[in-house]
Specification:
The chain is mostly helical. It contains five helices and no strands. The chain has one domain. Helix content is about 85%, strand content about 0%.
């Protein structure tokens, strides 16, 4: 069974929704809403982590497999920075630092991942 456009759209939706929740969190002053955003990011991250191996398996032996692996590697860098730097800094009160990384290198990384998604969409 091959990877479908719906599969890739599902992955893209998780990326976008998690990024939206993070950006919302960074602009939110209400602690309850901040925690809600963090919970959303964690939930979507777990779903994304579970989805990647399934998609890679579906794409086994195709050009899409290599592209998915590249995208997973790029996403891992993005995710690790977000989870180990941006979110902890934000909740430690280092909001300017969190926003600088979130709106700087992370924004660039997210754009790269988005273009990778679009490239894979053109392949399936």
């Amino acid at each position: 069974m091959a990877v479908s456009k719906e599969d890739i759209n599902g992955l893209k939706t998780k990326f976008v929704d998690a990024r939206t929740a993070l950006v919302t969190m960074l602009g939110e002053s209400d602690k309850t809403k901040q925690e809600g955003c963090r919970t959303t990011v964690k939930k979507l991250t777990g779903e994304t982590l579970a989805l990647f191996p399934k998609l890679i398996e579906k794409a086994k032996g195709t050009n899409v497999e290599a592209k998915l692996k590249d995208m997973k590697a790029a996403w891992d860098v993005f995710r690790n920075t977000r989870d180990n730097e941006v979110i902890p800094n934000f909740f430690a009160g280092k909001i300017a630092e969190a926003k600088a990384v979130g709106g700087g290198i992370q924004k660039e990384r997210f754009a790269k991942i988005s273009s990778m998604v679009d490239e894979i969409m053109g392949m399936v």
